[in-house]
Amino acid sequence: MRLRRGWIFSLLGFFLGCAAISTIPLQSLQVAPAGKPIRFFYPNHNGNVEGYLIRPRGTGPFPLIVLLHGHSMIGEGASRVLPAAEEFSRELCYAALAISLPGYGMTELGADGDREIVESVVLDGIAHVTSLPWVDRERLLVYGFSRGAFFAAALSGKLPNLRTAVLHAGAYDLQRLYEDTPSLWVRQSLSPNGDRSSRLVTILPEVTGWRAPTLILHGGKDQLIPISQASFLRDRLEALGKPHRFVVFPDAGHRLPLDGVKQEVLSFIGQNVGTACSAR
Predict the structure, then answer these.
(1) Are 67 and 97 a contacting pair, CB within 8 Å?
(2) What is the average pLDDT across 23-39?
(3) Which of 70, 162, 180, 222 is the least buried, fewest Cβ under 10 Å from its Cβ?
(4) Exposure pattern of 52-79 as b/e (b: 16+ CB <10 Å)?
(5) Is residue 73 part of a domain?
């Protein structure tokens, strides 16, 4: 029961702010306190990036799960996914890294829709954290929510130690999303200046290089990102014989049912990576 309640409150917390959190220098991450999130900043060639890190209790080394947030109308970044990060750390004993993507949180970068910049921000954060002695660099997971799921998918073929990718209500072919979504807001965010060619990319051809098992979660009644986006990715994975699980919540919109997400995510991660609590 404690796990069930904790997970529900964690998912509710995706759309809420978080309490004051200590900020420590990048060079102090090696001795970061265990059991609570800390904030740090790290350099990218485009500016400074805000990250949050949770170190499980114990000596490790612990698998690292990287959480990439979705869009926020008020500019919230990684703080939106901190409750989920805390749950992964507490229940599975994973180190958890949440990154504020360009244009969000206190990350000091513009060009929030530039794929190359976003990828460099995430890769730099992973490089800093996997250098820590209590992090197992051989066991990496990525979990992307909505907009963050696109970037998680885009990185799936570029992370050699990736063990699992979880893609939560994401888009994978932005050209077809622009054409298919009933949401004017989504179309405007995809192409704010009407320049469709430079921003509307697809990652489906890149699936050829994916190795890690992928969990795709989507709502059957999603009015922002249609279920067809998840189906495109599923079909591509199936055609290439890539390991994956495809889960549709038929009555859900863009926000997925809490209990169902909990069950699917914990089961999938348990099968492919397992708990790390024995490392305590």
Answers:
(1) yes
(2) 95
(3) 180
(4) bbbbbebebbbbbbbbbbbbbeeebbbb
(5) yes
Q: What is the CATH number of the domain that holds 178?
A: 3.40.50.1820
pLDDT 10s digits, 164-202: 999 999 999 999 999 999 999 998 888 877 665 667 899
pTM of the full predicted structure? Answer: 0.90
| Residue 280 covered by a domain | no
Number of domains in the chain: 1
Whether the Cβ atoms of residue 210 and residue 242 lie closer than 8 Å to each other: yes
**For residue 46, which phi and psi values (nearest 5 degrees)?**
-100, -10
Cβ neighbors of 146 (< 8 A, separation 6 or more) are 70, 71, 168, 169, 170, 224, 225, 254
CB atoms within 10 A of CB 188: 11
Is residue 67 within 8 A of residue 98, CB to CB? The reply is yes
> Do 139 and 273 meet the contact criterion of CB atoms below 8 Å apart?
yes
